Amino acid sequence: MDPQFILSYTHIAIASLLLVLQMVLSLLLDLKLIRHIAWASARMILQLSLVGLVLAQIFAWQNPWAILTLLTAMTLIAGHTAVSRVKHRYPGIYRNAMFSILLSSWSITAYFLAAVNAPSPWYLPQYLIPLLGMILGNGISGIALALERFLSDLSTQQADIEARLALGATRWEAVRDVFRSALQAGMTPILNSMMASGLVSLPGMMTGQILGGASPQQAVNYQIVILIMISSSTAFGAFGVLYLSYRSLTHADHRLLLARLQERNAS
Amino acid sequence: MNPSLLSGHHLTLKMGDRTLFEDCSFALEAGMCLGLSGPSGQGKSTFLKGLAGLIPFASGQVKYQQQDIASLEKPHYRKQVLYVPQTPQLQGSSVQEALDYPLSLRMYRHHTMQEIAPEALGLPANISTQRLQHLSGGERQRVQLWRALRLNPTILLLDEPTSALDKTTQEQVESLLRDWLKGSQKACVWISHDTLQLQRMGSTLLYLHTP
Fold first, then answer.
1. In angstroms, what is the C-alpha Rg of chain A?
2. Residue B118 · residue B128 · CB < 8 Å
3. What is the tens place of the pLDDT at every residue in A112-151?
4. ipTM associated with this complex
5. What is the interface size between A and B, counted as CB pairs within 8 Å?
6. Is the N-terminal amide bond of A64 cis, ω within 30° of 0?
7. Containing H/E element for B135?
8. Secondary structure class of A160 (helix, strand, coil)
9. Nearest Cα to A93, choosing from A135, A142, A136, A150?
10. Number of C-alpha atoms within 13 angstroms, CB side, residue A251?
11. For A170-206, what is each residue's pLDDT tens digit?
12. 3-class DSSP state for residue A180?
């Protein structure tokens, strides 16, 4: 990295003064956010420092098993995080979310490595970990949105869905509309951010690459490919988790199993 | 005695840990209207949903034309034994769309609708062009019933089908359904709080109460 861009602990300490300004604002307006700001900043610093240590170690080892373990942990945490943003629960929701996210993000990453561009060795952690991390981190919100929409629509539109079933609809015909609008809801944020990219914001990865010394053209090329991967992974991951939820909440005998569905606070 | 179209054998229905009723048996023959009465919260609506296969009974058996419905393909069965919910559920944005909704289902792909004039239910002749949001509660109820009749099922499971109607319209609908029951192999189960209405329908009464 260009030495003039290197950040030291002193630099971080100086930047942290801005946190104090936020706290002063909170104090003046009685926002009661001082502890919140302190706690969030402390966690952020601690978590990122830990990640730094782990990454440094993994980069030093270059051991494929250690890398795969880390990628698995990242994926499972992503699945857990996606579900934690959803108000409803049913037995198996965590398993379904983790499985769908695993399948979508890993197959998209595998496609990238196999067909687009693979480093050597293929498991090069400097490449693979940020790649999967971006797919997971940006995919979670779309998947959580789709799932939340699907589960809440199922419970609010139960009477309508049952009426469809009563008319002779198969379970798929009965929930098709709800499924479709949930998938659309899940895809909307990433499509919007693709529309705004470059205009409203310079995506974080591009900024990072440019600071790291990459040419803007290369940074842009990477950003394009990453956004395509994120949106695909969101689409397939959301589809997967919706499909598995649909299978969990309907019976092969074409009826709903909504007794399994509970609101988080009620359970 | 005629073989029954639909029969229940020792049916028990539970809601969570609560038993709504148990050991309920009945037989519904062609031309018959089974009137279902009983206090609110006793599970009358749930009972109809159970007969439609939308909710499983805790124990017991339902037979349609001598066959256990557990072994029947439900969309096919529900096309014959049509449940009409108490709160009308109409899909789409216009009456015509709601009437045509079943045609979007695989089960009705080659189905010809029974022609019934809306006036038979006391609905205006141009009702199908109206938007659903402009319908009154009573109109919605009749549109839902109209759609059910057009689908020409064998058995109608009616959950308070006239609860939102005035006296005159109510009697018009009753008379239409009495005529419908005279058709070949037709029968209905009718939930009503009004036992006089059930008598007018010439129903056999089934009274659900706590075990």
1. 22
2. yes
3. 999 888 888 888 998 899 899 999 998 999 999 999 999 9
4. 0.95
5. 62
6. no
7. none
8. helix
9. A150
10. 18
11. 999 999 999 999 999 999 999 998 998 888 767 778 8
12. helix
